[in-house]
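Notes from the 1:1 (GR / supervisor)

We went over the backlog. Supervisor wanted to see one worked example end to end before approving the batch request, so GR pasted a single chain during the call. The sequence is below; no edits were made to it. Supervisor asked that the structure be written out right there so they could see what the output format looks like.
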Amino acid sequence: MSINRMIPDESPRPALRLCEPSEICDNEAARPPAPGHGRGGFTVPAQPEWDTPVQFVKGVGPKRAEALAAEGIHTAGDLLLYAPFRYEDRAAFRRIAELQEGETACIFGRIIASASRSTARVRMKLFELVVRDDSAAVNVIFFNQPYLRNVFHDGQYVVLFGRAERDTYTRSFRLQLRNPEYEIVADDEERTIHVGRVVPVYRKLGPLTGRQLRALLYPVAAGMAAAPDPLPEALATRLGLCSRLAALREIHSPAVDAAEPAARAAALAALNAGASPAHRRMIFEEFFLLQTGLQFMHQGRRRVAKPHRIAVTDAIRDTVRQALPFKPTAAQKRVIKEIVADMTSPWPMHRLLQGDVGSGKTIVAAQAILVAAGNGCQAALMAPTEILAEQHHAVLTRLLAHTGYAVELLTSSRPAAEKEAALRRIAAGETPVVVGTHAVIQKDVDFRRLALAIIDEQHRFGVRQRAELMRKGQNPDILVMTATPIPRTLALTVYGDLSLSVIDEMPAGRVPVRTLLLEGERDLPKAYDIIRREIAAGNQAFVIYPLIEESEKVDLKHALAAHRRLSEDVFPGVCVGLLHGRLPEAERMAVMEAFRRGEVRVLVSTTVIEVGVDIPDATVMMVEHAERFGLSQLHQLRGRIGRSTKPGWCLLVAHDCKTDEARRRLDVMVQTTDGFRIAEEDLAIRGPGEVSGTRQSGVLNFRFGSLIHHRELLELARVEAAAFVARAMAEPAGAEMALLQQIRRDWADRFGLVLVG
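Structure output shown during the call:
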């Protein structure tokens, strides 16, 4: 019988009392033991304590505990620190008869019918309910959740929260609720968890859904008697911050008592913006602990002197001047002065060098290398790709040709015999300059006197890889370079009190690249005409595709097919090359060399050329399916052209801009070529971890804070952390030093990025 034909019942409803959902425990065996009967000798408290192992939290058990451990959740306290990502007001109940299409509402009623069925066309399993209150009945539909037939039963009272939409499946076009949040009503429980209040919404954590997490966290937050508070009491009092436990209780179970709609809306907005007193307390805590740790680590580095001493003599200055191919910009002069000052100090340099694509970072690095080599020391430059390593090797070989300093190239593709000979020269100190990829940090690479380690495109390396390069010397000077500008707020957060140098000026004579946004197939002829004109003028072009081969899952143009089409149909008689990551290294190098010599006029490529390719005659960068690329990627790609006095074109071809975010990225690229403005926009769109490449390190995985929305708290935390560490170092007190040691111990992994640049 169709559920739509079931006759509703008019029975009255009981007083509103909600129970915890029955599905919290997977099975009976997974339920925690009774209080006082733990496993392995652990006594389980009636209410969880901060350090209670998470498996003994009601509703977890061994299997879920194992999965949660993989997510970094080991204790009840760890669970409490898992923050909701938004809040919903589910307190205002609507009568079913008053529901409006498109409205998200909370209703209360009795199940009068239920049924399961499958759809033949799309093979979807549906579970349906009819729920009635004293005004009307409404259909409720759940997709592909057949287990719900064991959860819901006729006659049960339920609270539902969801969006009212028209029924298009049966073509009745009546209002229905699709996949709503639900809670079953019982007579023996008086609290609501999922509805009837302002409800926290959680992202899935391991095997636990947001609903299951809410059911776990509600009683944990309410029952926790105490929580360790890492903020100094005097600091919290002075800043008017509530306790950690009070903040966490409010975050997981916010008390929004205002009845007036505008007041409730304001309270809800504050919660979702992280602007509530509870959120601000936890945000400040996160920022303060991070900044304190960074300051502490920085002070620790200052206590370990480097064994080598660097001095700048007149002879070194002459050597540097002879190596420069052109007069440096004012920004380059300022930056090299900062770097040399660090190198000549007794403490190891830890400096981040930021510069937009084409700003001349390699020239700055070359000067630092000459200073190290001039003092009888070795320098190593590590790049993320063989293409980029080879380019650095060629540039440094050319710049240092008059000095007599040998520049060695270490890559995985180098023949074994040549590599072994190179390793002997490096170990003996005969080679002062080494350029390479990950091969530089292999176990068989030994330096005699490594004094300067340079890491190019730092976001392409992992923490361990950067640390390995540091260990090749004894407290070497570290210079980290990036062509992806990082907003100041982000840089100060990631790198703490590390020195920051910025090349904010482009070399003279550079002509800005003109960027055009083109609409798919319609505008392709326009793009091809621009490329033809540039080729006729003796210039070259890149054509970038996101895939190598055709994908069945994603309908994108692919480089292999495009190469054939462009060669045969679009640019007949023009030499069109193909470059992608699956080509053997020797073949990739051959293609790039042909492109450098001008034999290849159009290079079809994937993003393998994103960094490190410098072709002065390349004046066109055409990016197919530009909507699929991030801002940072697009900016890096555009940076491959306009590297001479010739004007350049960046043609962004968008085929399917379905999201506002994608359109926003492309609009930003059209509006500006300023890398730092682009970085700010990228930060706002994608988040800090993706922009800086630090997601892997964990430094920026804030639970509560946002670098975009809470910058004033970050600045306050930096000021307070600096003062706290200064006091602790000058007049060590037990509590303060204990906190510093705890931060160093608990946050060691998060500071790995900082320690290695």
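Supervisor's comment: The radius of gyration is 31 Å.
Batch request approved.
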